[in-house]
Amino acid sequence: MNAGLASARTGLRERKRRETRQLILAEAIVVFRNRGVRAAHLAEIARSSRVSQATLFNYFPNKGALAEAWVRGEIDQALERAAVEFDGRGLRAAMRTFCRQVSEIVSGKNDRNARLEAWRESGRANSALPVAAHPLVQALRRWQESEHVRGDIDAQTITEMLLESIEGGLIAGLRRELLEADLTKALRTRVDLVLDGARKRNERVTAPTAGGSTSGWLKRPVQSR
Fold it and tell me: Which of 11, 65, 68, 111 has the smallest C-beta neighbourhood within 10 Å, fewest atoms?
């Protein structure tokens, strides 16, 4: 078979797989919003997507995988939009934009309960760890090379901390029914705390004393010399 033809066919199959996956996920989100995650049935989602349940299972092995693809996919979507600013505006400014964009995506929709159910169904331990090619990992490594971010913690660990703080902030915001502006502020506070801990000049912090005194803990962190 001609190599070019084989490549074209492979590309067509991959595109069809992406389109099928997107269709299933889109239909699942509609069902989740209308019925709730717990009450939704995979058979109903398969029918809405015009695929067999066997085909659905090829893309999403269970309802938790669909729920995770919904709520974590929105975080990935906002991150992709903010990633273009990682070089131009700097990491902190880009992350603040990221927080605003995440808030825009999840706010203004009457699906708070469904989203909370989706987070419960997906499970915090199910998500894959960020890989080296992750845009946030790459941005943090560049900042480590320029000595703006401490280098004694690997970039993937800092990325995990940032993403976990965002997820936790979203879940708390949904529970407290925060409006978009308040959710953005809450997410930015969490992100700023992680980034402050990752600053190059903030590598040593005075620990609490054995007797429980917090006087040293609350002092300004000791700067590296």
Answer: 11
Q: Report the C-alpha gap between 167 and 71 in whole angstroms.
A: 9
84-104: pLDDT as tens digits? 888 777 888 889 999 999 999
Answer yes or no: is pLDDT of 201 > 80: no
First vs last C-alpha separation in the chain: 64
Residue 222 β-bridge partners? 204
Contact call for residues 156 and 130 (beta carbons, < 8 A) = yes
Among residues 96, 81, 88, the alpha carbon closest in space to that of 135 is found at 81
Q: Which residues make beta-bridge pairs with 149?
A: 199
Q: What percent of the chain has pLDDT over 90?
A: 57
Q: Would you state the torsion angle of the CA atoms of residues 197, 201, 204, 206, taken in this order, to the nearest 10 degrees?
A: -80
Q: Quote the pLDDT of residue 81.
A: 84
* CATH match of 62-225 with 1.10.357: yes
Q: DSSP character for 108? A: S
64 residue type, one letter:
G
CATH label, 1-61, candidates 3.90.25.10, 3.30.750.24, 1.10.530.10, 1.10.10.60: 1.10.10.60
- What average pLDDT does range 153-164 have in this prediction? 93
Do residues 186 and 169 touch, judged by C-beta distance below 8 A?
yes
Bridge partners (DSSP) of residue 199 are 149
Q: pTM of the prediction?
A: 0.79
